[in-house]
Amino acid sequence: MWHCLKRRARRRKDRAAELERAYRSVFSSTDGETVLADLAADCGIYQAPPVDLDARAGGYLDGRKALFARILSMLRIPPEEHAALQAAARLETLPEFEHDEEF
Asked: Where does the Bbp19-like phage domain lie (predicted)?
């Protein structure tokens, strides 16, 4: 059965704390950090939009970025962790290089 916030926290003031705890629980593991970096790269939160982006595609991109920003705001990570997330997201966007030789 799916859990909802209203069932988990009866009082309104408890809901914000419960929701933040749930987001932290999901994204504070190694797997969660990997998923968060992938989401950041996929939505392009740290990249400038293409110059030739039309209004409809721009709105779609803005929506993706807004959703990621909501996730990030729920986690309330310190600046040094945010910088590490940004670096990880940038690494996700780099092309893969195949080497013929082993190092």
From this structure: 23-86
